[in-house]
Write a structure and sequence with these properties.
Layout (H helix, E strand, L loop, with lengths): L1 H58 L1 H10 L14 H4 L3
């Protein structure tokens, strides 16, 4: 009886060691995957910042002015007032 108890304790101990090794190896694998995804997130964040800066440049008035100069839109339009009878009567 003592021998059977001692054997079962050793079997449980070996099973626990095997499970511990499996959990340890699995946690290393998960850690590698987490690091991979964190690098991907950092790359996407950097790309997002670059694209945001490009959008802000495109939306800026300085960019609009430079594009207008390139397209020869340098003349300013004269405002049209309806108080002038010529425009009020559509002549």
């Amino acid at each position: 009886m003592k021998h059977l108890t001692k054997l079962s304790i050793w079997a449980v101990f070996l099973i626990l060691v095997a499970v511990n090794i499996y959990v340890f190896l699995h946690s290393i694998s998960l850690s590698d995957r987490i690091n991979h995804f964190e690098k991907g997130i950092k790359n996407l964040h950097q790309e997002n910042l670059t694209l945001e800066n490009k959008i802000f440049e495109v939306n800026s008035l300085q960019y609009a002015t430079s594009m207008a100069a390139q397209l020869d839109f340098t003349q300013k339009a004269q405002p049209v007032y309806l108080e002038n009878l010529k425009y009020a009567r559509s002549q």
